[in-house]
Amino acid sequence: MRRCVWRYLGKYEKEVWRSEDVRWKFFEKMRKDEYMKSIFYAVNVVNYVILVTLLVINYHNLSYSGLNIVTYFMTASLVLLVVSLGYYFYTRKDVGLVSMFINIVNLCLIAPMLLVFLF
After folding, report:
1. Does residue 89 sit in helix, strand or coil?
2. Could you give the CA distance from residue 41 to residue 73 in angstroms, rounded to a whole number?
3. How far apart are CA 53 and CA 74, in angstroms?
4. Per the UniProt record, which residue ranges are transmembrane (predicted)?
5. Residues 67-79: tens digit of each pLDDT
């Protein structure tokens, strides 16, 4: 279904055809981007929740199992970093950059601090 929109550009009248299908595709794409943003943020939050859960469960044995917990956290952050890097290069969306930054902070700041505090 098409409708005609009249715009005045200076002295000239220009007839611009807009398709409702184009608008729906735009909104579909926007929704898909929002879903991907939510998925990336949710996976990063799940990574933190699993880390905290493992720390709470193994609270009395942290000197024994702390290295395994930090290894898990670093491995999960590295996998998420590679996935978000691939997503960014595939789609050129900022969500990939934000997720990459979060995971670089995980690998460079949080994991060494965990090693220092757990041992």
Report:
1. helix
2. 16
3. 16
4. 39-57, 69-90, 97-118
5. 999 999 999 999 9
